[in-house]
Each structure stands twice: as C-alpha cells, then as structure tokens.
Amino acid sequence: MSALEWALLAAIVGLAALVLAAMALGARALRRIGTASTAPAVDDSAFVAEKDRQEQSLAALRTAADQASSSVDTAKSAAASARADAAAAKAEASAARAEAQRVLDAARAEADTVLDRAHRQAETDAEQVRAAARRSGEREISLLASTTREQAAEVERRAQRMDERERLHTEEVERLAERERRLTAAAAELTAREAGLVAREAALVEAEEQQKRELERIANLTADAARVELVDAIEGQAKREAAILVRDIEADARNTADQRARHIVVDAIQRVASEQTAESVVSVLHLPGDEMKGRIIGREGRNIRAFESVTGVNLIIDDTPEAVLLSCFDPVRREIGRLTLEKLVLDGRIHPHRIEEVFETAKHEVERLCQRAAEDALVEVGITEIHPEMVSLLGRLRYRTSYGQNVLKHLVETAHIAGIMAAELRLDAPTIKRCAFLHDIGKALTHEVEGSHALIGADLARKYGEAEEVVHAIEAHHNEVQPQTIEAVLTQASDACSGGRPGARRESLEAYVKRLERIEEIAAGKSGVEKVFAMQAGREIRVMVKPDDVDEIGAAVLARDVAKQIEEELTYPGQIRVTVVRESRVTEIAR
Questions:
Q1: Per-residue pLDDT for 189 more than 60?
Q2: DSSP state of 481
Q3: DSSP 1
C-alpha cells in the first residue's frame, strides 16, 4: 500500500472513532433518562410497603407519609434534571454528527488532495526511474561493447599463440625424430660393444682364475685364508686408527666442552653456600637424670605404653646414661614424639591424660614449624605462586633426610644450582628453579604411598596444577622416564651436583664395599691387565697392564672401555677417573 492509501485509511478510522464516541455519549444519556424514569416506580413500591406497615401502627404511618412526600419531591427534581441531561445529550449528539460530517468532508478533500499529489509524485518517480534505466542501459551497452572488443583481441592473441605453439611442436617432432634415429644407431653400436665386452669379460674371468690358482700355488694359501688374514690386519689397523682418532677428538672436546661445563658447574656450586653437616636419623633425648626413666616408664609400664600408643613412636630405654632413643620410620611423627617427650620431661607431670594433651600441643607446633620452614624455603628460592597442599608437603621434608642430607635443604641448594646454570646458558631460570625445587617432593609421601618418589612427585605436581615442563622434570630426574626437555636435563645435573659434592651425603658401608669390588672386577676382567687399585674412596682407579700384551694405543682403548662399562653398570656420585699405567722395562744380562 502507498502512503496515500495509508493516509486515507487513517482518516476513515478516525471518523469511525468519532462516530462511535458520539454514539456512546448518546447511549449514556439515554441510560440516565431510563434510570431517572424507573426511580419513582421503586419509590412507589416502597411507599405501598410503608402503607401496609402504617395499618399496623398509626404513628409509623404518619412518619412514612412524610418520608413518601419528600421522596416524591426528590423524584420530581431528579426527573427534571434527567430531562435536561437528555436534551443536552441530544444537542451533543447533533453537534457530534455535524462535527463528524465536517471531519469526513475535510478528510475526503484531504484524501483527494493527497491522492492527486501521490499521482504526480508517482509520475515524477517513474520518469526518474525511466531516465536512470536508460542511462544504466547505455552504460551496460558500452561496457558490453568494450568487453566484446577485449574478448575479440584475446581470441586473436590466443590464435597467434596456438599458431606459434603448433610451429614449435612441429619443430620438436622433427628434433625427436632425429634424436630417435641417433639413438637407434647408438643402440646398435652399444649392442656390438656389449657383445665384445662379454667376450672380454669371459677372457678376464679365465685369466683371473689362472692368476688366482698361480697365487695360491706360490703363497701356499687359499683365497679364504688370505681373506681372513687381510680382514684381521685391516681390522687391527682400523682399531688403532679409530683409537687415535677418538683420543684426538676427546682431547679437543676436553679443551672446549669440558672446560665450559666445569666452569658452569664449579661456579654454580661455589656460589651456593650450604651446610655440610647432616642431621641424625635416630632422635636422642637427653634426660636431667636417670630417675626420670622410671617416671617415663610409669607404674607397670602404663606411661610408656600410652606414649607409644598416642604418638606412634617406639621409645627405647636402655643402659645409656641420661638418654632415651625414639625410633619411628616417619621423621615428622618421630619429631612430634621427641618434642612431646621433651615437654613432658620439662613439665614433670607424666601420665596418660597429660601425654595426650602435650601430644596435641607438640603436633600443632611441629605443623607450624613445617609450614614456616616451607615458606622460608620458597622465599629463599623466589617461588611465590604454589598450591597450599604443596607447601604442607614441602614442610614435611624439613625432617626427612636422604643418606644423611636434609631433603628440604637439598631442594633449596638444587634450585640455586639449577638457576645459576640456567642463567649461564641463557634459559628460563624461574621455570628451571621451580623444576629443581620440586623434584624430590614425592619423598614426603614415600612412607604412605607405594612407588618411586619421582613418579609420586610427578603425580602430585600434575594434581595440583603444575606446568607440564615441571611434571616431566620431576618424573625424569632418576630416569624412570627418559628426559625430553632441557629443564629435565638441568634438573638431573643440579641434583647430581647437590648430592655428589663432598660431605653432602653418607653412603652405607656395604654399598661402598660392593661398589669398590665391582670397579676392580670390571678392570681386572680385561685382557692384559696385571693389577687393579681402587683409590680415593673409589673416585679413581689405576690399572696396571702388561707392557708386552698391551701397547700405547691398546692402553687408551682399555681405559675407554673400562670407563664406559663403569658408567653403564654402576651408580655413583661425582665421577671416577680411570688411569691405565703401562711400564716399559728393558732387561739385559751381563755375562
């Protein structure tokens, strides 16, 4: 619908609304008139009822008559006002009809005007559209003409290229035909030469067989025996040359890589100042006197039984003067028991109820100490964002030792060494320090969870949202998983530096003796070895060889083989130097 039609529709709707409003006003006036006309009937019925009641009581009848008279007067006045309202309503209705007629006439005139204007506007728009279409058609015609000309030119160029390609193709066919003729001639020539070569090869094979038989007759050796001797000679020469080459390469590598690695490791270790003393594995509590042992035991041993039941720590009371021993596989629980017993001894009151009270106090105190130790370690290393459960587990390592080395101090030292190495190599030092600091966190649960502490620590780190680089470095630092990243390799190196430095860890006598025996067995099992000496607590091995059986190149090969076998079979801190001693002796007898 056009704008003109919408305007006409709106005018018609407005007129209809006005007519409906006038009709509503008229209906309301008529209802008022009807209401006023029915009121006297209602009052008459009330008057009749009152008249019946007047028959029963004369006094009431008079009062009702007065009320009826007043009601009649009121009804008359209401009827007069209703008539006036009806007249006014009729006047309003006639005025509304006149106004509606006038509005309708005005709307019709306005609609005619709008319709005429719309017709003129439509003709103007149609003329503009026709002009625009004419101009667009002219542009399309010109564009099609230019496109047609370009396509004709393109067709002509393609025809020229096709002619040129056809000419080139013809020339190529001629060249290929000429080449085929030459190849046919060459093939015939090659066939003739091949026949000659076959005949010549047969003659050469026959001559070679004759020469081979003649050589076997002169040398008194078969071809297989000569080949074996030649292979042995070449193999020995190759081994000597390989040993010389390996020696030269190793010397060059030591002058560069060894010096650089030594500088980095030594610098990292020198810049980390750590204590070399280690805490004892067994907790010892000194008593003010031997009479305190009886109070600790209690009547019929009830105090010691209550203490062991509450703390989970075995209390060993022997003949050691003024001292008792506390034994437990869990170092945190052992420390809680030691602190509990210490507080009981200082207090003097030792009975089962008091043991339980002091145990709870000591437990909270040890937990605070663990939390404080973990927070101090994190501040020292420079790690700020870490899960609270990880902090609690790190605090438990304050009372855990590994070969006499405190694990929490070992983690701090390892983190510092790894950070210095990363800075020297221009790597991401914070990430590598985090890997090194968390690599032994699994030792906090090795008494509670089965498995390697590396895999336990990796599961913990993955559970508490650590990055994948940190998780891989933790699980690979003891080669349960092959290291795949530079973070894992540096974590292994820093762990070895911290654990392998002199005085850091203690080794059991049995493992130490077995390692020395195995080192001597490896060296003594080589051919040409006369004596073997393990020196400097197994950090150097000297191999005495027989000079007649082993030459200088063989000595270098022997040292390399022994070192390689020790690396593959044994686990040891630091490094082991292998020295092969070949002494040349010349003996003459004067007669």
A1: yes
A2: S
A3: -
Distances (CA, A) of 33 to 41, 139, 252, 257: 14, 79, 130, 122
pLDDT for 39 beyond 50: no
Helix (H, G, I), strand (E, B) or coil at 477: coil
Please, what's the largest Cα pairwise distance for the chain?
193
How confident is the model over 192-217, as a mean pLDDT? 83
Residue 397: which residues within 8 A CB-CB, separation 6 or more?
A: 374, 406, 407, 408, 411, 440, 441, 443, 444
| Nearest-angstrom CA–CA distance, 308 and 359 | 11
327-352 burial by CB neighbour count: b if 16+ within 10 A, else e? ebebbbbbbbbbbbbbbbbeeeebee
Determine the residue type at 322.
E
Could you tell me the two tokens for 61? 């009848």
In eight-state DSSP terms, residue 399 is: G
54 with 64: CB under 8 angstroms? yes
CA distances from 8 to 22, 55, 117, 347 (A): 21, 72, 13, 109
Mean pLDDT across the chain, nearest whole number? 78
Residue 244 to residue 252: CA distance in whole angstroms = 12
Residue with tokens 């306005």: 110
Q: Which residue has the higher pLDDT, 535 or 196?
A: 196
Predicted confidence band of residue 273 (pLDDT cuts 50, 70, 90)? very low
Q: Phi-psi category of 481—alpha, beta or left, where left has phi over 0 and alpha has psi -120 to 50?
A: beta
CA distance 467 to 474: 11
Q: How far is residue 1's CA from residue 19's CA, in Å, rounded to a whole number? A: 26
User: 385: which residues sit within 8 A by CB, 6+ positions away?
Assistant: none
**What pLDDT sits at residue 506?**
55
143-157 residues labelled b (16+ CB within 10 A) or e (exposed): eeeeeeeeeeeeeee
Please provide the DSSP assignment of 245-308 as one string.
HHHHHHHHHIIIIIHHHHHHHHHHHHT---------SSEEEE-S-THHHHHHH-GGGHHHHHHH
3-state secondary structure string, 440-473?
CHHHHCCCCCCCCHHHHHHHHHHHCCCCHHHHHH
**pLDDT tens digits along 534-583:** 877 678 888 988 888 888 888 888 888 888 888 888 877 667 889 998 87
| DSSP element (H, E) containing 540 | strand 540-545
* Cα–Cα distance, 590 to 169 (Å, whole number): 100
pLDDT digits (tens, 9 = 90+) for 122-154: 888 888 888 888 888 888 888 888 888 888 888
Q: How far apart are the first and last CA of the chain?
A: 146
